[in-house]
Amino acid sequence: MDVNLKREAILDNYQNPANRGLPKDSAYKEVNSRNESCVDNITVAAKVVDGKLDDIKFDGEACAICTSATSVMTKELKGKSLEEAELIVENFNRMIDELPYDEDLLGELNIYNEVYKQPSRKKCALLPMESIKKIIDDEE
């Protein structure tokens, strides 16, 4: 994907994030994650029904990379089984860590495939995955 298209997609998901706003519903499990090296402080909430991520929401204050990665993550993981979501999270983490990964699993998350070039931004991109992984692990 062209670097300008990636930049546009990241900026759009930062300025107009999908699934922003935490529900007032006890059926959702919430996990808060913070990045010690910058402003990132997000809460991810997920509702699991019959082994699937039925809905995912988030809120908090975060940089462009973290906010946009959280937005894209919610879109890509919503409706996936816990096993499918875990595989996507694992492959995303591998991509950010410059390890072999299956790009076909990641969909729009592939726009972060060059974050590794800015090591200080890796944690920003990984923060939402850290949150959803805790929710997945708690459900299994």
In short:
With 140 residues, this protein is an alpha+beta fold. It has helices at 3-15, 64-77, 82-96, 119-139, and strands at 28-34, 41-49, 52-61. It has a single domain, classed as Sufe protein. Chain: A (Alpha-Beta Complex), CATH 3.90.1010.
Provide structural commentary.
A hairpin with a 6-residue loop joins strand 1 and strand 2 (41-49). With 140 residues, the protein is an alpha+beta fold. It has a single domain, classed as Sufe protein. Chain: A. Helix 1 (3-15) packs across helix 2 (64-77) and helix 2 packs parallel to helix 4 (119-139). It has four helices and three strands; from the N terminus they run H-E-E-E-H-H-H. The chain has helices at 3-15, 64-77, 82-96, 119-139, and strands at 28-34, 41-49, 52-61. A three-stranded antiparallel beta sheet has the order 1-2-3. The chain starts with a helix and ends with a helix.
Low-pLDDT windows of residues: none
Our measurement of the CA-to-CA distance between the termini, rounded to an integer number of angstroms, reads 35 Å
Mean pLDDT: 95
**Percentage of residues in DSSP E strands:** 15-25%
Could you say what the CATH architecture is? Answer: Alpha-Beta Complex
> C-alpha Rg, in Å?
14 Å
- Provide a count of the helices: 4
Helix content: 40-55%
| Order of helical and strand elements | HEEEHHH
Q: How many strands?
A: 3
Widest sheet, order of strands: 1-2-3
**Major sheet description:** 3 strands, antiparallel
Class from secondary-structure proportions: alpha+beta
Number of domains: 1
Q: Any idea of the CATH topology?
A: Sufe protein. Chain: A
